Amino acid sequence: xxxxxxxxxxxxxxxxxxxLSCAASGRTFSWYTMGWFRQAPGxxxxxxxxxxxxxxxxxxxxxxxxxxxxxxxxxxxxxYLQMNNLKPEDTAVYYCNVNPPRSDCWGQGTQVTVSS
Length: 116
Description:
By secondary structure, the protein is mainly β. The protein has no helices and 10 strands.
């Protein structure tokens, strides 16, 4: 089982940047496609971006294309999300998980708040 801990969230003005990290436990991290997901207040959790186990293939939600970049370091068991040109509608709790997500892998998430 993979255990995941997200970090790096915070409060930022519109147009600003943040870099999220997701640290994974376990020796099988490099087996998995990993994803970032987010849940805004009053909304369902949604897919943001995924990266293949090798890091070669990525898949972005249309709403973040050109602004967000996912990467991973399998040696460090960590996946990153670089978020640039943030918008108020990006405000949410951000989670990482394997992709497709597993119910037993959700962490506590990290809050991202973008002020206008």
